[in-house]
Design goal:
Length: 136
């Protein structure tokens, strides 16, 4: 198994750069056609969500659809996929960033009682607690 960086996955999904998109697609499809799997870690998924929202201006619902599709690709081995599914569920209805939900769900998976944060928006989500500053 091999892992891929976010830029490979972005080119494969967006097909926005003729040269790099073709190379990424050919690599992924050729590599997986022999029964190999590609490892996609949490950070790659988090970066992908950020890139799709900030650079490609995808709406939250469309971004969620892309991540759901990636999670269902049998040739991709997603790092602790259940954490990403749970974070995606939280993200659908929450106001925090997707990466915050991945952090929270990863911490729960690792037996943390809660996740402490300075982020007021994130602290309103289940499992997060705001660590106040003197300014709060």
């Amino acid at each position: 198994m091999i892992g891929i960086d976010t830029n490979i996955l972005v080119r494969y999904i967006t097909q926005d750069d003729e040269l790099q998109s073709n190379i990424a697609t050919e690599f992924i499809e050729n590599y997986c056609s022999t029964g190999n799997k590609i490892f996609v870690n949490h950070l790659v998924i988090c970066e992908l969500v950020w890139v799709l929202k900030k650079c490609y201006k995808l709406s939250k619902p469309k971004t969620i659809t892309v991540i759901q599709h990636i999670l269902q690709i049998a040739q991709f081995s997603i790092e602790n996929a259940q954490i990403i599914w749970q974070a995606l569920t939280d993200y659908k209805t929450g106001s925090a960033d997707f990466a915050d939900y991945v952090v929270g769900r990863t911490n729960i998976f690792n037996k943390c009682d809660e996740t402490i944060t300075f982020d007021k928006k994130t602290s309103k989500s289940k499992g997060f607690v705001l660590l106040p500053t003197k300014a709060d």
